[in-house]
Amino acid sequence: MNRLSEREGVELLTHGDPIELGRQADAARRELFDDTVTFIVDRNINYTNVCKNECRFCAFFRRQGHKDAYLLTYDEILEKVRETVEAGGTQVMIQGGLYPDLGLGYYEKMLRLIKTNFPSITIHSFTATENPVFCAAGGHLHSGYAEAAAGCGTGQSAGRRCGDPGG
């Protein structure tokens, strides 16, 4: 099986037939893995809905001080991870808004607490929107942030495994 070049991939996504793309992807999957299908049990934990971006399309965010705004305590986050593990979960996705007053230490402590209390859980943490903010807060380039996050216990970041080139 030949891999597509970046140019071929862009051409296919831009001008190709999405049904045919799906067929080709399924054929490649079958060639590599036959009919093997796997899954994991995981949980999204939204630690806050407070976000300084206030994107007009987002129905999730609340302004700091709004009656529906929240920021989970570390104990509340750990309880959600515990529930996940007890249900057979192996991964948690940690994400939330861009809370204006939280320093990088809040996130580092959160990750360390999860990993210390639940060493077998995989932490898939934060979104492509959150990561650059954390990088700036910690004075890291994106790749440096990935190393710092991995050191706190996260195994993956949205779109990449921590430690992969580019973060």
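Second entry:
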Amino acid sequence: MDIIKSIEHEQLKNKIPDLKVGNTVRVHQRIKEGNRERIQVFEGTIIKKQGGGVNASFTVRKIAYGVGVEKTFLVHSPMVEKVEVVRVGKARRARLYYLRDRIGKAAKTKEDTGARIENKEITIKEEISEETPVETPAVENVAETETPVAEEVKEETAPVEEAKTEVKEETATDKKEEK
């Protein structure tokens, strides 16, 4: 692997959210103020996605106090804590720049009513656990564990049947006493 690609691969997140243009999302972003760190939520509509790899980004637009605000977030940034899908929108274009000219309810996308809101995540890097499998002892252990389990089940079922018969006998005697 190339040196640059290996460095970029280290910077990628393991799982990224499945983002689609037109969806309304809630982005949780870390903000550092002095020596404190807090999380700020930015909710709006995704108007574009661009790039790939480490440079992949998406732009979210919302209207705050009558003014349109757009923020661009890097998908693999450590400052982006998580992205939640609030509403699935219908979009037939890759870029929704026409929403910039619209005001109020017209600035929304139509909701895809049949779609479920799912926080799907795409796995980028898979963690490989290095374990040496020992096949022969594993087969022997499985055979040994199966036999005692069957015997235990048989032992447990017998007392249950006895308890049922005792209960039936008691109920029959109780009825005779009541008469």
